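User: Let's play a game. I give you a shape written as tokens, and you guess the letters that built it. Ready? Here's round one.
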């Protein structure tokens, strides 16, 4: 086992990340490659399935360049963002770009499901919104029926790429819970909901557990990826489930605040607590669940600001071997708490919790002639933190106990942003050394390979905390005041956005 590595393969909304770990949880290497998202119309969000496999091959090539011998990898597991149906023909070829979970086009279809809302919620534990696969497929049934008629198989992001690596088509039950096509009590696909979507239940994939073996690396995939032919591959699950798991949230009362492309506030529970304002999923550890209050855009906002407003800085910083995100932190550091009166609402793609309002749009408000770039960037950090606190309000209202909070996601690497979050939430927090989904998937690969007694044992043996944060009382008090203004701005602007066509 001294020479063994386990590989986690993540397909997030923005890119593929691979992480190789030793059995004691030490990171042997990691690499990531971005892929594009297509926004051909306002509210649309699609990806080309071919880009995912190319990104995986490129990420593994980069991992090898960084000194990781891919021949040492003994097992791999996959994860990915949920709700994203890959429509395949009889030869397992994609029929169109995949509609992503951030897509907002199916608002009318959600309205058409209104008479069935109670039944859908009772059966699937979720309320219909454009995030879910069911209304997305209903939109296709109405606007592109030929595609559904040609569809013979449906997989999801991680499952489609894993199929390309192994030739085995399957998904796990947590991924299935992200479709609105799943019966939570029966733990099976719902033929009734599939019919609403315009598909026969037979096109939906077979169900396995996250730690079940789902084939092995084929000869062709070995040539493409550099992974050993015949290496066992385990199913894995949704990115949200494995990042919570890998960050150490394995007991009831553990909570996650996530600053990734999207943002989540998740609390682990010993049983399911369905709530119309939140999402409810099974945990990686059998018998446990977690409740999710989620915002559509978190670290995505920082990437958007970088791409739209900081291109010249980016070229300059990267030419000098620096990181533009670090530079943005330095610029924001010069602005005080409250960003000199500038507020940001992160509704770049509508919003989920707590508003479930696809019409909402992002905004900077309170701008004056004296406002600086530092004010805008810090306001962006504070606005995302306020949005996450808005999400947390649902968990507090449900009276779900929270005993400790972990910050995870790319945004949590920013010390400034983590400090802002800690003060906004006004509770002590921990930042795990390895708080991303690919690490959790690597642990699942080890569990599947038999390196650990069970899923919980893997975390207990491998979890490491990078830093602990404590709120500053004065800063926390100031943020409580500012949060009231943040909420008032939302309340004032929401009717305006609703009236816009």
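Assistant: Ready! My guess for every position:
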């Amino acid at each position: 086992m001294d020479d063994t590595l386990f590989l986690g393969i993540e397909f997030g909304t923005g890119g593929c990340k691979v992480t190789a770990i030793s059995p004691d949880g030490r990171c042997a290497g990691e690499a990531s490659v971005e892929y594009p998202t297509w926004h051909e119309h306002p509210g649309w969000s699609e990806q080309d399935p071919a880009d995912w496999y190319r990104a995986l091959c490129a990420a593994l090539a980069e991992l090898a360049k960084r000194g990781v011998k891919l021949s040492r990898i003994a097992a791999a597991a996959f994860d990915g963002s949920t709700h994203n149906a890959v429509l395949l023909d009889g030869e397992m070829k994609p029929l169109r770009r995949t509609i992503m979970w951030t897509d907002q086009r199916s608002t009318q279809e959600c309205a058409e499901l209104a008479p069935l809302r109670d039944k859908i919620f009772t059966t699937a534990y979720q309320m219909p919104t454009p995030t879910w696969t069911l209304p997305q497929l209903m939109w296709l049934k109405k606007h592109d029926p030929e595609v559904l008629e040609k569809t013979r198989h449906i997989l999801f992001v991680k499952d489609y790429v894993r199929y390309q690596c192994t030739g085995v088509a399957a998904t796990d039950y947590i991924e299935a819970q992200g479709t609105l096509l799943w019966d939570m009590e029966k733990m099976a696909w719902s033929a009734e909901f599939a019919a609403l979507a315009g598909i026969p239940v037979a096109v939906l994939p077979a169900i396995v557990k996250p730690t079940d073996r789902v084939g092995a690396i084929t000869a062709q995939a070995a040539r493409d990826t550099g992974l050993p032919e015949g290496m066992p591959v385990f199913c894995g699950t949704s990115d949200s489930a494995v990042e919570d798991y890998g960050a150490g949230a394995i007991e009831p009362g553990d909570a996650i605040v996530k600053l990734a492309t999207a943002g989540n506030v998740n609390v682990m529970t010993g049983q399911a607590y369905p709530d119309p304002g939140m999402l409810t999923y099974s945990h990686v550890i059998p018998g446990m669940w977690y409740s999710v209050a989620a915002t559509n855009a978190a670290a995505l906002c920082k990437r958007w600001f970088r791409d739209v407003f900081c291109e010249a800085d980016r070229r300059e910083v990267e030419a000098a071997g620096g990181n533009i995100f670090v530079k943005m932190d330095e610029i924001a550091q010069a602005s005080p708490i409250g960003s000199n009166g500038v507020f940001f609402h992160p509704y770049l793609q509508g919003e989920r919790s707590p508003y479930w309002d696809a019409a909402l749009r992002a905004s900077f408000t309170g701008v004056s002639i004296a406002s600086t770039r530092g004010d805008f960037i810090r306001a962006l950090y504070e606005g995302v933190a306020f949005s996450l606190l808005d999400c947390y309000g649902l968990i507090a209202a449900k009276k779900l106990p929270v005993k400790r909070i972990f910050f995870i996601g790319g945004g949590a690497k920013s010390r400034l942003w983590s400090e802002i979050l800690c003060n906004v939430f006004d509770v002590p927090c921990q930042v795990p050394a390895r708080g991303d989904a690919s690490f959790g998937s690597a642990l699942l690969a080890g569990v599947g390979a038999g390196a650990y007694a069970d899923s919980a044992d893997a975390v207990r043996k491998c979890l490491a905390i990078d830093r602990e944060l404590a709120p500053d009382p004065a800063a926390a008090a100031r943020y409580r005041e500012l949060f009231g203004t943040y909420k008032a701005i939302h309340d004032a602007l929401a009717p305006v956005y609703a009236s816009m066509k």
